[in-house]
């Protein structure tokens, strides 16, 4: 009777062993699956981080390029302002000098027939010194008599019909115009000959 009990117990322990192995295999398979899922999840997270960093990098590059462009524009503007200051810094001084030049020109025009030639020569010399000094600082007068009327250079105060002209032309100059380098300092004050209207 005892032998039968032992023989019944032996197959039972073999079945238990198989069950344990199956359980271990299942656990290993689950662990491997979990690892695969973890790795996949980790890769997805890394890809998102890489994309985010790439976007941030691109934004920083754009900001850097914009800053460089702004600095270049600022440098150019500063250089232009500096150049303009050097060119036109004495504008007010020369503008105040213009009436003096006008007076000299008038004195020369009225004194041409005067007997005191030495006086005229003296005035001419002073006028030349003044104009040379002004030209050295960029001031130049421009001739307008007979030129085509240009509202950018001439200030017309009188219109005179003239059959001999086909376009508006400067007839008389009452006050000379002056340029400071390439900038108009004062327009010439003129009368304008205009084509006669046909009845």
Automatic annotation (TrEMBL):
Native source organism of the sequence: Pseudobacteriovorax antillogorgiicola
GO MF annotations, alphabetized: adenyl-nucleotide exchange factor activity; protein homodimerization activity; protein-folding chaperone binding; unfolded protein binding
Cited InterPro entries: GrpE, GrpE_CC, GrpE_head
Region (Disordered): 1-48
Upper classification of the organism: Bacteria, Pseudomonadati, Bdellovibrionota, Oligoflexia, Oligoflexales
Polar residues bias locations: 1-17
Function: Participates actively in the response to hyperosmotic and heat shock by preventing the aggregation of stress-denatured proteins, in association with DnaK and GrpE. It is the nucleotide exchange factor for DnaK and may function as a thermosensor. Unfolded proteins bind initially to DnaJ; upon interaction with the DnaJ-bound protein, DnaK hydrolyzes its bound ATP, resulting in the formation of a stable complex. GrpE releases ADP from DnaK; ATP binding to DnaK triggers the release of the substrate protein, thus completing the reaction cycle.
Chief subcellular location: cytoplasm
Gene (UniProt): grpE
Protein name (Swiss-Prot/TrEMBL): Protein GrpE
Family: Belongs to the GrpE family.
Subcellular location: Cytoplasm
GO BP, one annotated term: protein folding
Any one Gene Ontology cellular component term annotated for this protein: cytoplasm
Subunit structure: Homodimer.
